[in-house]
Amino acid sequence: MDPRYRARAESMAARFPGASRVLTGPALRARQTAEAFGGEVLEDAALADQDFGEWSGKELTDVGTADLSAWLSDPHAAPPAGETFGQVCARVRGFMDRLLGGSGLTLAVTHPATIRAAILTALGASPACFARIDVEPLSLVEFRGDGRRWMLRAPGAGFPEPLPPGA
Description:
By secondary structure, the chain is an alpha/beta fold. It has one domain: Rossmann fold (3-Layer(aba) Sandwich). It contains 5 helices and 5 strands. The strands form 2 sheets. It has a 3-stranded parallel sheet. It is globular, with a radius of gyration of 17 Å.
């Protein structure tokens, strides 16, 4: 793991001292990030990145414009031998359903595709919206459950000083 990312992950960990569980997918990069949060890290296959099949390891420019366009516009299109957006959403929805009735703070360290699917699950949105969500590395997305449903929480960054009148 790049030392800069590790330092950022460790500083983020300070925001979550009371985490009951730290879960991650099977990829080494996700596990290393999760370990920066400290404590026991448990692997859950549902947190794996999208399976890109024959496209794995390729640059987008090597995929082909028509194939890429179809994949980005159709949630039922998949890379050859890979996973569709709809399949990722179904897998993540099952994971979130398992956690819904639990208690305590769970941290899940995973990949952009998995986070997109979690956002769509919380919003009850269609997998057709999958490609419209951009997730940056080491970003935080917070979900709250009330035992019946998930809610997407936008904690906000706050303002360094009060807003001027009329703002």
